[in-house]
Amino acid sequence: MENDLKIKMYSVTLDCKDPRELAKFYAALLNWEVVPIPDEEYVVIAPPGSNQGAYPGITFQRNPDYVPPVWPEAPGAQQQMTHIDFAVNDVDKAVEYAVGCGARISNEQFSEHWTVMFDPAGHPFCLCNAKDLYASPHFALL
């Protein structure tokens, strides 16, 4: 990469039918804030105290034709394109909290080190046992 070229992560964007509702879910889950943007097609959440333009964040994009992915994958079914992994210091408490925010637990699990969940729009995400990572001074966006 050239020295004058700068590339930084800006946002992870999730398609959904109702961006405001999905943003509220993730804002509650992460204790983040909904960034005020006068656009109903996109909603952004960011860490507390951030202003618009303070990224990375999570963006939710309206797609009226959104179809939730099938997980685990199945031939001929809508496939996931991405998922978010969240580092947590206590998976059991994090799962309970996520359910209280509106998530649901996947019927299928493949590890004792993380729990696969679904957000209210059906996107899979994982709550990962990462005590060492979570406590690291190099871990961003606490």
Structure explained in plain terms:
With 142 residues, the chain is an alpha/beta fold. The protein is 20% helix and 27% strand. It has helices spanning 19-30, 91-101, 131-135; strands at 11-16, 33-35, 42-46, 57-62, 84-88, 104-105, 114-118, 124-129. The strands form two sheets. A four-stranded mixed β-sheet has the order 1-4-3-2. The chain has a four-stranded mixed β-sheet with strand order 5-8-7-6. A hairpin with a 6-residue loop joins strand 2 (33-35) and strand 3. The longest helix is centred in the N-terminal third of the chain and has 12 residues, at 19-30. The protein is globular. 22% of the residues are buried. The mean pLDDT is 84.
Radius of gyration computed on alpha carbons: 16 Å
- Characterize the overall form: globular
Fraction in beta strands? 25-35%
Q: What share of the residues lie within helices?
A: 10-25%
Number of helices: 3
Order of helices and strands: EHEEEEHEEEH
The number of strands is 8
**Secondary-structure class:** alpha/beta
Largest sheet data: 4 strands, mixed
What is the CA-CA span between the terminal residues? Answer: 29 Å
Which helices and strands occur, and which strands form pairs?
Blueprint: E1 11-16, H1 19-30, E2 33-35, E3 42-46, E4 57-62, E5 84-88, H2 91-101, E6 104-105, E7 114-118, E8 124-129, H3 131-135
Parallel strand pairs: 1-4, 5-8
Antiparallel strand pairs: 2-3, 3-4, 6-7, 7-8
Task: Summarize this structure as a short list of keywords or feature phrases.
four-stranded mixed beta sheet, globular, 27% strand
